């Protein structure tokens, strides 16, 4: 019966092991799915819609061939369509059967003259989340979210590459292959054990077998030694005895008789040949039985060695979620204008471009990354430094470490964002203060440009801001939901500079933490003191302040407040009081460079523009308006005609 069960175990083991191996070989499905994109018409751009990449789950691998130069960029679908609105392109989407189809899309708003599109290189656009280039062929893994599409081009002039395919990984895991092989190996081992036990049982059932004894050759005795014996007759052959209860006792009796007749027989008799009486026989039998299990374990190890983790069930534990602060997006919230990766790349490019422009006094280069009052201040500085060699350069704009990103949540243009960037280490090892700036993109084809920039106060505490992936709303200039409307903030602060704590707007502002007002008062007192040393009897100096040349920009905070960027002008008016008296200002090299004269018989007006960032609380909040940062510089100098 043991042999029957052993055979059944062998058959079952073969079936299980065969099934496990078959799952990993002949029945193993494909591990990838490929979608070929058939592009018929030559267009300078190909837009692969986000839904194409969502045809299968998992990481997508995009493979492109068909042109010497291949350019790839991906961004939000709406941004790509806006960038392509004035150009013809090929649009790849999915049909009802889930297959990729390509159709030619004409320019919605042509911006060129003639019948042929002149082309535009897409490289370097601030709209792209990421861009890549290759020569001849490109294969890149992607993991795009739902609303992100891909743009393919050559250089914006030549036709875009047409050999396009997308590959997704498909799970072909066989979680029961490993357990089947292991189960089959265990059953095989059981079968081997049953087989060995069956053989052992058969051998034992036959009983012990005795072989005829071989008498030892009698010793020769010396003459006269002992008594003389007669001739010994030939011994009768012993009969084999069957196993029985008295077999052992009979054998012992016979052996005892032989020993009595021939006391030396036990020492001279040769070794017996039976297994049961061989020295160390039981160890050899145990060794042979152990050797029978070696192929079983060897086969199992060989099969399991080739099994990948896909051949086993996965019992991963579900991670416990960590509670975080919840930020609820307002209803109908639009997408943020920038991502964190875009902001970092843009800040680095702004810093490098402005640094080179400052060093070369290259206004055209500065215009590619500066606009508004930030560009005006650079233009004036470049002009003065062209005439005055030792005139200080403007403060650099850092870009290596973006600390805070607050993009406007807006799908149209122009778009804005606020960045806080860590300052660069000075030559003496001191850390420069962080820089806060507003950047604006005028249209889909323009670069983001700095419009307002200032140094953040060391003790400034920013209000709670929305995360970058949520963005913030642009607060209207006339908003009544703030403690003061952004459009009214410059005039109110100018009144604070003029009257201090006596201003009617003083209760709205935190004057104790206002370092700019303190620095301005000290500078004005020192300037007036120097003037009175020589010109007190022949002239007079007055100070004025007013609204600056740029419009305010405000982005909402989480507590219904806003960060507002404004400009305020401060002026120094120096005028002679007697006829025939002139105002001399040879020591003020900046004014001399702008005016072109060192003396004047009429009033001279120096105008400095101050770029200021304020944290403005919501209407009804107990908090006060706080200054976050500022920067100042000479903007104009003129001789006022009487």
What is shown here, in short?
It is built from 13 helices and 19 strands. The chain has about 650 residues and is an alpha+beta fold.
Helix content: 25-40%
Overall spatial form: elongated
Major sheet summary line: 9 strands, antiparallel
What is the β-strand count?
19
Mean pLDDT: 84
* Beta-strand share of residues: 15-25%
Distance between the termini: 129 Å
Please report the number of helical segments.
Answer: 13
What Rg, in angstroms, do the CA atoms define?
48 Å
Q: Can you tell me the residue ranges where pLDDT is under 50 for at least 5 consecutive residues? A: 222-283
Give the helix/strand class: alpha+beta
What's the structural blueprint in terms of helices and strands?
Layout: H1 2-24, E1 32-38, E2 45-48, H2 50-53, E3 60-76, H3 77-83, E4 89-94, E5 100-105, E6 130-142, E7 148-153, E8 163-169, H4 177-205, H5 247-261, H6 265-268, H7 281-305, H8 340-360, H9 363-367, H10 372-387, E9 402-407, E10 415-421, E11 435-441, E12 449-456, H11 489-499, H12 515-535, E13 539-547, E14 553-556, E15 562-576, E16 583-584, H13 589-595, E17 599-600, E18 604-616, E19 626-639
Parallel strand pairs: 2-4
Antiparallel strand pairs: 1-8, 2-7, 3-6, 3-7, 3-8, 4-5, 9-10, 10-11, 11-12, 12-19, 13-15, 14-15, 15-18, 16-17, 18-19
Helix pairs in contact: 1-4, 4-7, 10-13
């Amino acid at each position: 019966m043991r042999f029957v069960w052993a055979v059944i175990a062998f058959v079952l083991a073969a079936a299980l092991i065969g099934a496990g191996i078959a799952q990993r070989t002949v029945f193993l499905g494909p591990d990838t799915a490929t979608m070929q994109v058939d592009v018929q018409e030559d267009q300078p751009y190909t837009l692969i819609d986000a839904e194409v990449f969502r045809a299968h789950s998992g990481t997508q691998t995009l493979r492109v061939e068909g042109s010497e130069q291949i350019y790839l960029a991906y961004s939000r679908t709406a941004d790509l369509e806006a960038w392509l609105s004035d150009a013809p392109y090929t649009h790849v989407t999915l049909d009802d059967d889930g297959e990729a189809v390509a159709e030619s899309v004409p320019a919605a708003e042509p911006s060129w003259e003639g019948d042929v599109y002149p082309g535009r290189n897409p490289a370097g656009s601030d709209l792209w989340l990421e861009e890549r280039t290759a020569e001849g062929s490109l294969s890149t893994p992607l993991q795009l979210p739902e609303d992100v599409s891909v743009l393919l081009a050559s250089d914006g002039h030549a036709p875009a590459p047409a050999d396009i395919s997308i590959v997704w990984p498909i799970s072909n895991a066989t979680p029961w292959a490993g357990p089947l092989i292991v189960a089959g190996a265990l059953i095989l081992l059981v079968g081997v054990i049953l087989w060995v036990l069956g053989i052992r049982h058969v051998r034992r059932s036959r009983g012990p077998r005795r072989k005829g004894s071989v008498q030892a050759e009698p010793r020769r005795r010396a003459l006269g030694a002992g008594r003389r014996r007669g001739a010994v007759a030939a011994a009768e052959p012993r009969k084999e005895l069957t196993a029985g209860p008295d077999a052992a006792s009979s054998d012992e009796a016979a052996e005892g008789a032989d020993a009595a007749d021939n006391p030396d027989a036990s020492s001279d008799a040769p070794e017996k040949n039976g297994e049961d009486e061989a020295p160390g026989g039981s160890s050899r039998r145990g060794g042979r039985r152990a050797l029978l299990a070696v192929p079983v374990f060897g086969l199992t190890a060989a099969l399991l060695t080739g099994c990948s983790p896909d051949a086993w069930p996965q019992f991963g534990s579900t991670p416990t979620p960590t509670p975080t602060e919840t930020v609820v997006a307002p209803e109908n919230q639009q997408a943020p204008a920038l991502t964190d990766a875009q902001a970092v790349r843009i800040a680095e490019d702004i810093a490098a471009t402005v640094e080179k422009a400052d060093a070369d006094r290259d206004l055209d280069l500065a215009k590619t990354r500066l606009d508004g009052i930030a560009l005006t201040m650079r233009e004036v500085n470049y002009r003065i430094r062209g005439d005055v060699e030792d005139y200080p350069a403007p403060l650099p704009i850092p870009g290596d470490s973006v600390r805070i990103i607050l993009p406007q949540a807006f799908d149209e243009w122009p778009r804005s964002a606020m960045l806080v960037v860590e300052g660069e280490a000075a030559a003496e090892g001191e850390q420069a203060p962080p820089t806060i700036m507003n950047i604006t993109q005028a249209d889909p084809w323009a670069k983001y440009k700095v419009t307002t920039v200032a140094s953040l106060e060391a003790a400034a505490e920013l209000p709670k801001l929305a995360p970058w992936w949520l963005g913030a709303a642009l607060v209207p200039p006339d908003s009544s939901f703030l403690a003061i409307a952004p459009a009214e903030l410059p005039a109110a602060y100018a009144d604070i500079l003029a009257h201090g704590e006596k201003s009617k707007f003083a209760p709205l502002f935190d004057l104790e933490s206002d370092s700019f007002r303190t620095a301005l008062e000290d500078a004005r007192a020192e300037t007036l003191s120097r003037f009175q040393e020589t010109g007190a009897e022949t002239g007079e100096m007055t100070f004025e302040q007013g609204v600056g040349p740029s419009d305010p920009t405000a982005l909402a905070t989480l507590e219904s407040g806003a960060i507002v960027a404004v400009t305020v002008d401060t002026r120094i008016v120096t005028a002679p009081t007697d006829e025939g008296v002139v105002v001399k200002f040879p020591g003020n090299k900046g004014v001399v460079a702008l005016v072109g004269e060192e003396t004047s018989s009429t009033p001279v007006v120096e105008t400095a523009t101050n770029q200021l960032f304020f944290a403005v609380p919501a209407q009804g909040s107990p908090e006060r308006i706080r200054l976050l940062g500022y920067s100042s510089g000479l903007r104009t100098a003129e001789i006022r005609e009487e």
